[in-house]
Amino acid sequence: MTLRFEAACPEGLCPGWSFILKGEPPSEASKFEINFLCERDDRIAFHFNPRFTESDIICNSYVSNRWGQEERCTTFPFGAEEPFQIEIYSDNENFHVFIDESKIMQYKHRVEDLKTITKVQVANDINISSVEITKKPFY
Length: 139
Ligand code: GAL
Hints:
Elements: E1 3-8, E2 17-24, E3 32-38, E4 43-51, E5 56-63, E6 66-67, E7 71-73, E8 84-90, E9 94-99, E10 102-108, E11 119-124, E12 127-135
Antiparallel strand pairs: 1-11, 2-8, 2-12, 3-4, 3-11, 4-5, 5-6, 5-7, 8-9, 9-10
This protein binds beta-D-galactopyranose.
């Protein structure tokens, strides 16, 4: 895994924080991923994984040392060298994902103790131009 970005928020990223990533897949992109992690025990609360080879977005969680049931999103608004913006934020029930301000999916929380989700990372085939992490005003 090639890490492109990582940030820790010891007080917890969920619910209420919005993560906004601007970037562009390189010409030979195969996949990239955004992971919301629990630092304490290496769980991945939310793995968001666009795969160019499948034209699908695979979402999953890694808990108790194994991957769970995949959720596939067949909306695939990514193209090589096409700039995009992803926003992910969570409320108490779901992660909500927007691409270029259109909502494409939501992912129901599997890690229930939201305060333990303290790290976000971006990896693999993506050239990042900016990352913004802000608290949503309604929390
Ligand atoms: C695996 C892959 C992991 C992750 C997982 C999601 O096949 O190796 O990186 O994407 O699927 O279910």
